[in-house]
Amino acid sequence: MLARRHNGVCAGGSNGITARGVIAIKIMFVCLGNICRSPMAEAIFRNMVTQKGLHDKIIAASCGTSGYNIGDPPHSGTKKILASHGISHEGIRASKLERRHLREFDALIAMDEDNLADILRLKDKNATALVKLLSDFSKGGWVSVPDPWYTGNFELTYELITDGCATLLDYIVDTMEREKPGV
Questions:
Q1: Which of 82, 113, 174, 175 is deepest in the core (most CB within 10 A)?
Q2: What is 145-157 written as a DSSP string?
Q3: Looking at residue 27, what DSSP letter applies?
Q4: 147 is catalytic
């Protein structure tokens, strides 16, 4: 699973230590440009984690498989849909996927099959991260999160990401419960 796979230390070692000194599970959401889908997933997931009081145990981040938008804030459509649901995008800036992310994060969650293929091309023998599609955690039976950069449908993107993130978080929490000492 995700938590504590590496002799009591999550992938990334000291990079997975929170301000409280707690070893955290680190999740990286991945899309093409890191301005629409993956920063939306990062913000939604962070919000869910905070609402469950797990911000010291689970860390969310995002990146893109391309370097088109490095340093840019989320797309205005992403910011608008997040704001309409009371979710902050504070501190999110576009970055590019790097091979080291496959060692530093416990899971890389792709928005679509192309993103998944790009991640898997970077995977080498040192990679420790679980690599999955967000739809693998879906209750709705969908396969990919459509890119609203092309579709313009930020609401559908929000709904799909919310579905996948909720199920992903439930999976992580259930796994953390099973992995507690004495359970």
A1: 82
A2: ---HHHH--HHHH
A3: E
A4: yes
Specify the pTM.
Answer: 0.89
Mind listing the domains of the chain with CATH numbers?
A: 13-175 (3.40.50.2300)
Query: What one-character DSSP code corresponds to residue 14?
Result: G
CB atoms within 10 A of CB 7: 5
The answer to whether 106 and 129 have CB atoms below 8 angstroms apart is yes
3-class SS at 64? strand
- CB neighbour list of residue 25: distance below 8 Å, 6 or more residues apart: 2, 3, 10, 16, 57, 58, 59, 106, 107, 172, 176
The one catalytic residue in 37, 106, 118, 163 is 37
- Residue 45 burial class via C-beta count within 10 angstroms: exposed 0-12, middle 13-18, buried 19 and up: buried
| Span 156-179, pLDDT tens digits | 999 999 999 999 999 999 998 888
Segment 52-82, tens digit of pLDDT:
999 999 999 999 999 999 999 999 999 999 9
Catalytic residue among 10, 31, 63, 165: 31
